[in-house]
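Ticket #4471: structure export looks truncated?
Reporter: QA, pipeline team
Priority: medium

Steps to reproduce: submit the single chain below to the structure queue and open the exported record.
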Amino acid sequence: MKRRSGFTLIELLIVVAIIVLLLSILIPSLEEARESARQARCREQLTGLYKAMLAYSNEHGENGEYFPAVAKVSNKIDTQASLWLMVRYDQATASNFVCPSDRYATDWKGAIDQAKPFPLASDGRMTLSYSYQVPQNEVGSPRHERELDIVHFAIMADRSPYDSPDGGKLLTALTGWSSSPSVNWSAADAAVQARAKVRKVALSERLKVNSSCHRGRGQNVLYRDGHVEWKDTPLAGITDDNIYTRCDTNTTIPVAQRYCVGIAPDLTGGTANNAGPTSNDDSYLRTFSNAP
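Actual output as written to the record:
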């Protein structure tokens, strides 16, 4: 009797199907592992930048009190110029400000121009992946010493979604998020409601209001005391403050809504785009420049 050699077509198809199935399981896991590594590197960079802030404050701040901050020019904010101070004075390099998960940014390879903070790369991409607390005189300034809850006061994080190339599309998403039926803003306890909102917001909704640096899944946040935390939503400040919006001062709406939704930046170039934090406990992180 002649012995059969090799595989039949059906057997080969079964082997191929098994391989495809295994790849469909392994590839997402590998990508998750790579993203976890990038998140860890991003977290390390923010920790390093905090040390650079302390070094700058000790050398150039008023009595070591203020973190890097450029005063308003013609009543306009410029957080990029504030962060650029650390590059100008050698506390950090330009590459320290690029998150490895940020598809919109790349390392700056050119010469350091003192007057042009974080210029666009030759391919048009940004060279800054992080947002910084808006310096606003005494109100909400990123100060080295402050009598407030420094453990929960966010001063820096992955770039604000409103300062990414597709930021304008997110303004309507923020409004929709605030009117989500899963949130009862009129409930009595604002803090409880804010935390309940975090639990109820699905990934599809979080993608609309998170930083784009980590594909919208969340952001690394640097706090005033120097520690960094991963946050699934931007409700990462004091009183679950939305770190990418200004706190709403309208006292006729529930406190949770004032902090969690807040007032988004005016990306049309209006004067509201240059407004700062509304209180000392209002984290308002931007990646914004008024440089020509």
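Status: closed, not a bug. The export was complete when the record was re-opened. Leaving a note from the reviewer for reference: DSSP finds six helices and five strands in the chain.
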